[in-house]
Structures are given as structure tokens and as C-alpha cells.
Amino acid sequence: MPGEVVLRGLRKAFGEVVAVRDVSLEVRPGEFLTLLGPSGCGKTTLLRLLAGFESPDAGQVLISGRDVTALPPHRRPVNTVFQHYALFPHLTVAGNVAFGLEMRRRGRAEIAERVAKALEMVRLGGLGERRPAQLSGGQQQRVALARALVLAPEVLLLDEPMAALDLKLRQEMRVEVKNLQERLGVTFVFVTHDQDEALVMSDRIAVMNQGRIEQVGPPEQLYERPRTRFVADFLAVRNLLQATVVSIDGGRAQLRTRGGAAFSAADDGGYRPGEMVWVGVRPERIRLEEGGDNASPPQLSGENRLAGKLEDKIYLGDRTDWRVRVGDETLTVAEPAGPARVRSGGQSVTVSFPGEAVLRLDSEGSEPP
Amino acid sequence: MRSGGGALAAVSAGVYLFLYAPILVLVAFSFNAGRLTAAWTGFTLDWYARAAQDPQILAALRNSLKVAVTATAIATAVGTAAAVAFHRWRFRRQPALDTLVTLPIVVPEIVMASSLLLLFAALRLRLGFLTVILAHVGFSVSYAVVVVRARLAGFDRSLEEAAADLGATPLRAFFRVTLPLIAPGVLAAALLVFSLSIDDYVITSFVAGVGSTTLPIQIYSMVKSGVSPEINAVSTLLLVATSLLLWAASRLERGRRGWGTAVPVGAALAVLGAPFLLGRGPAGGERVLNLYIWSAYISPETLAKFERRQGARVNVDLYDSNEALMAKVQAGNAGYDVICPSNYVVQILQKQSLLRALDHSAVPHLPNVDPRFLDRDFDPGNRYSVPYFWGTTGIGYDKTKTGPVDSWGALWDPRFRGRILMLDDGREALGAALKWKGFSLNATDPASVRAAEQLLIVQKPLVRTYNSSSFEDILLSRDVWLAQGWNGQFAKIMGIDPRLDYVVPREGSGLFIDSLAIPAGAPHPELAHAFIDFTLEADIAAEICRTMGYSTPNRAAMPLLPESMRRNPAIFPPGDVLARTETIQDVGEATLLYDRAWTEVKTSR
Question: What pLDDT does residue B32 have?
Fold first, then answer.
């Protein structure tokens, strides 16, 4: 099917360093798929294997059902928006956009028409005669988009296209790029290390770590149900705890950390008594109360209440992160901005979170960084 | 702050002045009416007109431009390709290759020159345009690589990837994206290669052959007779042309097209193209004589006479030193028919079987030569050579400053401290000391050479400069009052300034006899004999002497010379003078003694 991307057992090493290990992935036609991961995780190499700038040591790349593994970049039905846009500085904006059409030896009239349309599409009409250096970062990015999209590729590859923009512009562009993709129905493979960007724009996200894809799924699924410690950590599950399953009863697993903190989790069927497990709790799912005497045994209700001591505070504007010492663990608690609370270090507090907020994480998969 | 800026501006101005003053002087003197560069005597465009009419200068300029343009095209293309390859791929032996690529830049030119000569000889390549172009590409391609690589260092590889991504084949990506972006570097490389090529002397002098004398070789070879202001005119025009091209290039780089760029390019091309339109020699028949001779040793008119008579064409190439001549002949692939070695060089070349024995029946005019110049020790029986010009080493001086001079001792006279010039030539300078003390110029015993060395060291504080190339100009400008030198150059300035005089000291001096000879491998020996005999004819020998101003050994020509020449003691010294002279000869192993002694003199404090 046009716009479909299938990767089979892709592997790429640079000397001793394995950048991509046995990656298999299917991207559906018209899908916005994001490769998310920290720098060095192999996401850019994977994109370059797709574009044809690198050739794999093993595996296959199929685009629109055709095996393109052996094809050079200029013969693949994909186009790329580069991280720093890679606009040709010696050509005008229109010259940049026309470049691919000229390479395809289109007629002059057709080129002029399609270039004008493409520039209109990215709202750059009238700037065709400028040089790239005379444009702002956001405008340059639109030119890069227009240059790639004017060729009506079956798949568009985007390599951290927002990385060079400031935060406000980045947020605007997220929406704009997403709208464009939906309007055109072109398959987008988008590389980023920014989880917010990934969550806002993607139909599906593939989280990469050390050359592997750890988890693929829609943003909600990844956010609600990260499968591995790495994915959880990367998607801001700040509190990762190792605990022993003490018992399971009534759909609840009773857990105890090595430091002695005990709490319960909603049993998803994956807990086994006596086993060591990793679990995670999002900071925003934990609430903070004054005083350390409100703790209660977990078995009495679904709500876990643990006594702790306040360590420090990180003010973030729209929220405040509190660091709380509970037994041997330090938990991060996110509190939305509200009436200012005066708390001081060493103060006794109680943290509470529902058992449903406890995410069981697979022990397999890689270590978090 | 203000005063700091002023100081900076002053220093900058000083640096620019230092850099450009010599060029400004050259340009100014190309309009100087006087023949010598010593003083300004009035404005003229005469030298430009003369340059435009001088077939040798025009031919040399044509050759230089052909070589430079071809070598620039090849070296720039190859260098750019290599630089791109180095930039794009990392390979295992890259550091070693890096060093190899830049090696030609640090290898001394003379080493490169002689190794190229050997290589071409081994490949049996006839020396000529091809070898000059190959050599120029060889030494300049490294510069091109280095310059283009510097430009590529700032080149964003993702631009090439973007081009490929947009459907450009690697070749189209290179020409549409990479090349336009590194164009300033490529252009800079081309300009550098062009300027390296157009002014290369050392390597060219080794590998040039028949018909490929370039402008620098022409200029250096004129040193023997004095560089003429025509060369200033030619240099000024080259300067103008290259400046125009540079200006146009900088406009192009800023993306400016149109008349403002086209006009300077057109003007530059017109200047550079002029030598191809002016004074093209006659197309000539198929018979060719390849003559390799000192500059200003034969006039175009004389050559034209020979060409008409024989229905042949003469290719003239020039050299400026016996060493260059020997290197060329010893390489054995130069293709020359007639050469003009000095006395001892005849001896050396003959010993190495590099000369062809003359067929005396083909040179019937040999008896025209004064017997005093025949059957000399360097070529008994003139089996290999025929005298062409001769001359003496002596002292040129300003008689109003020094009074009469008749001894080498004048060069050691403390009254003339700082006003004495010695030839920058070990055999000649040591020879003056040897002769003064009554030794032979060719003394081989260490004691005599050592004594001469000591004398020169004692003399050194009195000496203003050691110079063999423009001693007559320096005397004419009165920077010195006494100059050791050769008679021909002094004869010329004596015609300009009657206060100057020339003497062969009474202790005796050196005699040189430059002779015509035929190399062993000459391709046209029959025509070569005809040419040698032609120069021996009385009226031709007289014409050569009259036009070039050196002393002819041709007895039969003497009555045909103007009175003023015959009576000029600097050109034809009285008979007893010749008896006091001896020729500088190859001293064999004692050469080392002379070299050491001369080094001691030059390095002593």
C-alpha cells in the first residue's frame, strides 16, 4: 500500500557501536509515527536507514510494499526534513522548493505552479525570492517542509525539525505540522527526544533505547501504561521503586520496598507473591498532606498513605515538585500551582496515592539511564 | 582608544606599503624612458610597443599562458576531486595519504625539479609542453587540495544528503549544490595554481624543452644581458589582467552579474589574448631547428634570415646558466639541435659523450674565426664546438671617483670601502684574488685556494654587495664605484655614461668563450651544421655582434663592424690583454675546495 513502511530485522553498527539492533516496525499509510528516545538511542540512524543515507548491515526496508533496501536516497519515494533544515544557501526560497522538481525534470510552468502552491501551503507566499539566510528559524523550517512536500512523497521523514526553535514557536509548529499531516494524509516518520512533542503530535509512538524499540503504541497507551522501566522513566514516571510482592488478595497486591515502605497496587494479573518487581508512580498522582501522623496501613483502603519527611522543593511555575523522604526512598510529588503553601525542609508530611496509580513495569528491557 | 586605532592604521598602512611598494616601482618603471632601472628619466610607452613587437617575449608569454591555463584547469579539477574525496570518506590510511598529498609543498623545488626530469627521461618523454604542464600540475595540485579542503571544512554534509533526498544523483548533487558552495575555494585554488604556474622558474627550467620557454625562463635568461624594461611592461600588463580577473571573481562571488563583471573579464581576456594575436611567427616549413641558447645572444632578424635561406623554422629556447643547460642535455631528451655552452661546459659534456662530433666539411666558414680562439684546451681541434662569443672578466669603474685602475688590488683598496661590488660567483670572486696574487684561475692546490679565501674574507668589510645579475645597473646608479663583472654588460653602460670605464687588470683575468655545439641526440644534425656555418659567415657574424653587443671571435667580421665598436676597449680589448687571460676550466675534484672556500667567505662575519 502506498505510504506503508515496513522494517524487518534492521541492524546497523558503526565500528564497535551498534546503533540499531534488530528493529522491526510497521508504519501504516497516513500514520504519524514518532521515534522517541534520548540522544544516542538510534532513532536518527533508523531514520537515515529509511531515507537511504545509511545502508543496514542486516534487515530490510520496505516502502509502499517495495523493497528499497538497496536503493540510493535519490531513488526512494521518501523525502526528509533535516534537523537544521539543510536549505541550500546559494538558492532562493523558491529555488530550494523547485530543486526536487528540477531533478525530476518537470516543465518550467509546472514547477512554478507547484512551488507557488507549496509556499502557500506553508504560508510563505511572497517570500520566494528571499535567501534562506534572510528568514527566521520558523520560516526556514516551513521552507524545508515545503521543499520536501512539493514532491508529494509517499512518506515524509522528519529529523528533530523543531529542535532549533524556541519553545513558543515549537508549540505553534507542533499544531501546524500535525494539521498539515492530517490534511495531506502523508505518512510521517518523526524523530524527537521531546516527549511532549511526541505526545501532542503522534498517532503512535515508538520509544527507542540502545538501538531497540522498547514499546510502540498510541500516546495515551504509552502514557497510561508504560511497559518498561526505561519507557516509564522517559515518559516522566519519576518515582521508580523496587519492591517485593508480599501477598495478593482481593485484586490488590501488597508491596514492600527494601526500606520497609509498604503500599498496595491494583493487581493487573502480573504480580506473583514473593517476587521482586519494579513499579512506578507518576508524581502528579501523589498528594501531599501536612503532618506525618495520618499514615494508615494499606490494607484498610485502596488509598496508600505513607509518612515521610520533606527534603526540598523545586518551583516550576505551573507546578511545584516536592521531594519527600519515605523510608529509604525519595519520592517526587508534583503539586499544581495554587495558593502558596509554606513548608520547610525536615517537616513531617504524609503522601497518598491510589493503588491504581501504581504501574507495574516489566523487569525485562533495558536499565533506565 | 582613538590613538590605539590610529597606531593600528599606521602599522597596517606600513605593512601594505611594504607589500606593494616593489610592485608600484615595477609599474612606474615600465613607463620610464631610460633603459636602466637606476633612475627616472621621463615618461614613455615605448617599452609596451617594443614588448608587443618582440617575438621572443610574445612567444614566452604565449607559452606561459598556455601552460598556466592548462595546468590550472587540470590541477584545480583534480585537486577539487581529491579534496572532496578526502572530506567525504574516512579511510584507514588517511593520515599517511594526508601527509603524502601535502608533501610536494614542503619538498624543495629543486629536488622536485630534478626528480621530475629523471622521471620524464625514464619514461622517454620528450621535454616540451607536455612535460611542463605535467610538472606544473604535479607541484600545484597539492595546493589546490589544501585550499579546497579548507573551504570544505565548513561545508555541511547534510546539504548533499538533502540534494540526494530530493532526487539528485551524486553527480548532479555535486554540480548543483556542492560545487556552487565551495566555488570560492575552487576559484581561490585556481588563482593560486595559476599564479604558481605563471611564475614558476626552477621546475620549469628543468623540464622545459623545445618551444616551451615560459616568461620566467625568458626573464631569468635575460639576466646575463640585463633585464630590459620590456619585461616591466609585460609584468604590468599581467598584473592588470590578473587584478581584473580577481575583481571580477569577487563580484561573481557576491552574486553580481552584468556589465560590471563582464567588462573586467573581457578586458582581462583581451590583455591575456593579445600575445596570441600579435607577432605570431611565420607558419614555417616542415624543417625545424631547435636552438637552445643564452638570452640576447641572437636577434630575431638574424634568425629570420636563416629561416628564409633554409626554408626552415627555428625554435628558440633560452637558459640563464650553464647548470640549467647541463641538466637539460644530460637528461638526454630535450630534443635540441644547437646549444651554446661556455668553455668548461664543452669539456664536461664532451667527456660524458653528450656532444656530437662536428663534420668540419659542413662548416666551411670555420677559418673565419680568429686562431686565438681556436684549438683551445677545452676542445682541442674544435672537434665539438665552434666559438660564438667571447668575453673577459674585469673591473668596471667610475674613473672620476677612483682615478685610473689597472690592478685587482683596487678591489682591496680601503679608500673605496662600501663602494666595491664582487660577482656572486665563487670561481670568479676567488679568481680575482688568485689572479691578484699571481696564481692560476684554475689552481688546484689547497694552499692557493686557501690564500684566496683569506683575501676575500679580509676584503669583505669593503664590499657593498655580491651580485652577478645586475652589477652594471648598480654601478650605473653609483651605489658602487668599482664592480667586478663581464665586459659585455659594462660596454652597454659605458655607452650611456662616459665617466665609466672597463679594465682587464694587468695581473690577468678570466676569458670565457661561449661556443655552438650539437648535442649527441640532436634530431636535425644536418640543419644544425648549416646553422653553425651560417653564424660563421662574415656578414652574419658582424650582424650578431652589432645587434647583441658582445665580442665576436670572427676575424672576417671585424672590418664590417662600425668603428665605434671596434675601438671600444670593453668589447675588443687590445691584443696584449688577451694574452694575459686564461679560461676557467673544470678543476675536477678541486671543485670541492672552491665550494668550501666560497662558503667560508659568504658565511664569515
Answer: 84
Cβ contact B177–A151 (<8 Å): no
Amino acid sitting at position A326: V
Q: Work out whether strand B509-517 and strand A17-27 pair parallel, antiparallel, or are unpaired.
A: unpaired
Rounded to whole angstroms, the Cα distance separating A214 from A232 reads 11
Check: CB of residue A329 under 8 Å from CB of residue A261: yes
Check residues B284 and B208 and name the one with the higher pLDDT: B208
Cα–Cα nearest to A32, from A220, A165, A196, A158? A158
Residues 233-272 of B with CB under 8 A from A: none
Per-residue model confidence (pLDDT) at position B3? 56
B474–A contact, CB cutoff 8 A:
no
Q: Give me B506's grid cell.
A: 694587468
Query: Which CATH number describes the domain made up of A230-287+298-361?
Result: 2.40.50.100
Residues A196 and B402: their CA atoms lie apart, in Å, by 98
Which helix H or strand E contains A204, and what residues bound it?
strand A204-209
In angstroms, the Cα distances linking B418 to A57, B414, B462, B479 are: 80, 9, 5, 9
CA distance A287 to A350: 8
pTM of the model: 0.71
Q: What would the CATH number be for the domain defined by B288-389+512-571?
A: 3.40.190.10
Q: B275 or B256: whose pLDDT is higher?
A: B275
pLDDT digits (tens, 9 = 90+) for A50-81: 999 999 999 999 999 999 999 999 999 999 99
Lowest mean pLDDT among A277-281, B54-58, B83-87, B525-529: B54-58
CA pair distance B386, B532, nearest whole angstrom: 8
For domain B393-510+585-603, say whether CATH 3.30.70.270 is its number: no
Domain ranges of chain B: 57-213, 228-277, 288-389+512-571, 393-510+585-603
User: A151 to chain B: which residues are within 8 Å by CB?
Assistant: 166-167
The per-residue pLDDT for B68 is 92
- Nearest CB among B156, B172, B180 relative to A86 is that of B156
